[in-house]
């Protein structure tokens, strides 16, 4: 994991160099190299370029390994989770004074979605301002997408690294009558429908805005969508898997339409104190064990996320620590894993799932020791 963290930093540096174009003079030097009299200068420059290239490909390798691990982890464990916990693969929200029963975890998971919408100031009372196009980044088997689609009568698209999740998410959408029947209609066909006024064919396409959802395998760090598409950008407990948080956040902002709301609910480590440069060694060690079990790269703090959003000039940035509201969650997951059904399912599952289950007490300990924070961070893209 330390290697991964180092590699991520290197990748970020290269990214920044490309963004700031400080990389370009280097390329220019290289193309002019034949006319340079100093051979040693050329050697230094091309050496640097090769070194950067080597670092870059190491990062791609590391990210590739991580992505493969994430995909396999969810391919393997999603069915068991669904069987025991249902289609939401995220914490429940258990407010101390709420009516949500501690044993009704599905209700608590729905509460999580509702509270996140409220925290982000989505105008729930004004139907005209409801989100109409939603992207669910790191969608699992699509619990949030389907819920939000039905709640708002919106169109949603979910992305995940796991092909098994995509298949299941699309099957559940079809079973609930939410599958996007119009997905195969190409734009040029729509033009023909307009010209020929084929109302019959046009209708399904026009209905896309009313409660349809589709899922695909895609990387959150390189989303297959044009800029400015979605008026709600939703990431429920996927940010912790992202090896490059800057790229993750910039992709969320890129696909957001002007005025869109971005909601990130994610695992963070505690904010560092003013005199601290890093976490304490025992804290790093603790998180590393969790990283190994759940296929996570290096963690960041809520303050890091806020800084990243600020650097992109996003507006109305808000964050809150919801750790106290999710406290009953992991003990409940452990209880269900220890039930007869949980144990037999676990034994039938693969090693990755069992490893994940064994790491669950580490999450509880991390929360108790104030190392792990369950964070919500929201903002708006300027109009
Ligand atoms: N948001 C869902 C699932 C959370 S589990 C829910 O609340 O039910 C984490 C999800 O993030 C998984 O679906 C995993 O495949 C996805 N994920 C992790 N890294 C990703 C990446 N780089 N690109 C897309 N999805 C990713």
Automatic annotation (TrEMBL):
Q: Which PROSITE patterns match?
A: SAM_GTMT (PS51581)
Q: Which CDD domains does the UniProt entry name for this protein? A: AdoMet_MTases
Q: Region (SAM motif I) spans which residues?
A: 134-143
Boundaries of every Methyltransferase type domain copy: 135-264
Q: Which GO terms describe its biological process?
A: methylation
Q: Which InterPro entries match?
A: Methyltransf_11, PiNMT-like, SAM-dependent_MTases_sf
| Cited Pfam families | Methyltransf_11
Q: Which domain of life is it from?
A: Eukaryota
Q: Keyword check for Zinc, yes or no.
A: no
Q: Region annotation SAM motif III: residue ranges?
A: 255-264
Task: Using the UniProt annotation, give all residue ranges assigned to the region (SAM motif II).
Answer: 228-236
Family recorded in the similarity comment = Belongs to the class I-like SAM-binding methyltransferase superfamily. gTMT family.
Protein name per UniProt: Methyltransferase type 11 domain-containing protein
Its lineage opens with: Eukaryota, Viridiplantae, Streptophyta, Embryophyta, Tracheophyta
